[in-house]
Each structure stands twice: as structure tokens, then as C-alpha cells.
Amino acid sequence: MRVAIGSDHAGLELKNEIITLLGDMKIECIDFGTNGAQSVDYPDFGEKVSKEVSAGKIERGVLICGTGIGMSIVANKFSGVRASLCNDLFTARMSRLHNDANILVMGGRIVGKDLAKEIVRVWFSTDFEGGRHLTRLNKIKQIEERFIRHEL
Ligand code: RB5
User: Fold this and answer.
1) Do the Cβ atoms of 71 and 50 come closer than 8 Å?
2) What is the pLDDT of residues 71-116, one digit of tens each?
3) What's phi and psi for 64, nearest 5 deg?
């Protein structure tokens, strides 16, 4: 599995921690920035990561901004992206079991480093349950087909 990772300035420090952790977990990680401390706009980095996942070029993504809210809003504009804002362990587990989330979003100003690392471990080691949850994901797909305007 390959993972696309991105953040804004508020998520940079945590992003670097997560890159190291993913390396330790033997998960290949592609960094889409930001890589400097200067203030940047989270939609630019959310778009880079979400595009890869939406196009099926990279299987999973991790996005980090200050709260995780902005990155979640951006990522869920992309067809096929199921981004879950997980600032706690229960949500991290459920977002994989029930929602088959393919982008993990966290708030660098919300979660501490150790909790964030545990969220990543749980999120990457939990499988989708399928069954009735697949029926629901198929309904989301139908909504996307009806309402999302695709880039030409
Ligand atoms: C940046 O100050 C902050 O607004 C951003 O990181 C994020 O929290 C937006 O949702």
C-alpha cells in the first residue's frame, strides 16, 4: 500500500512525525508538502493528496491541518474520496470498519504526537467490515455520480 501525505503549516510538525512512523510501519509514503514553516493555504495541499486518491493512483492518504476541518472539507469534494477527521481512537477505528475511509485527517493543533501516532496505527490496521456498510457506500457513490461535477 502507498500513502500520499500532505499538510499546511499548522500540520507540518505532526506530518513529519507521521512520515517517520509510516516508514517504521514499512508503508511507502509520498510527501506532497508543505515543507516550510511559512503560512500556506490548506486547500492547495489537500487537493494534491485527494487527487491522487480519487484517481486511484495512490491507495490511501493522510492530511493534517490545524483542526483537520479544512482538509476534510477539501478532500471530500473529490469523487471516491472518503476522508475521515479522526482526532480520537474510536473514530479512527469506526471510520475504517464502517466507512472504508481512504484519507485520514487529523488536527495538528488538536491531537498530541503520541495520540496521533496511535490513531495512525489503528487506522492502518483496521479493515472495512463490508456487508450493510457496503450498501451505504454504494449510495454515496450514486450521490457522487448525480451531483459531483467532474473536471473535464
Ligand atoms: C490555519 O491557521 C488553519 O486555519 C488551518 O490549519 C486549518 O485548521 C483549517 O481548517
Assistant:
1) no
2) 999 999 999 999 999 999 999 999 999 999 999 999 999 999 999 9
3) -135, 125
What CA–CA distance (Å, rounded) separates 28 from 11? 20
What single-letter DSSP state applies at residue 152?
-
Q: Read off the pLDDT of each residue in 143-152 and give the average, rounded to a whole number.
A: 80
From residue 48, alpha-carbon distances to 4, 6, 30, 148 in Å are 9, 8, 11, 18
Four-point Cα dihedral 35, 45, 114, 21, nearest 10: -70
Q: Is 98 a catalytic residue?
A: yes
Environment class of 61 (CB within 10 Å of its CB; exposed 0-12, middle 13-18, buried 19+): buried
Domain that holds residue 99: 2-148
In angstroms, what is the span from residue 70 Cα to ligand 1's centroid?
A: 6
| Total number of domains constituting the chain | 1
H-type helices in the chain, by residue range? 12-24, 42-54, 69-75, 89-97, 113-125, 132-147
CATH of the domain at 68: 3.40.1400.10
pTM for this entry? 0.97
Atom of ligand 1 nearest to the CA of 107: 8
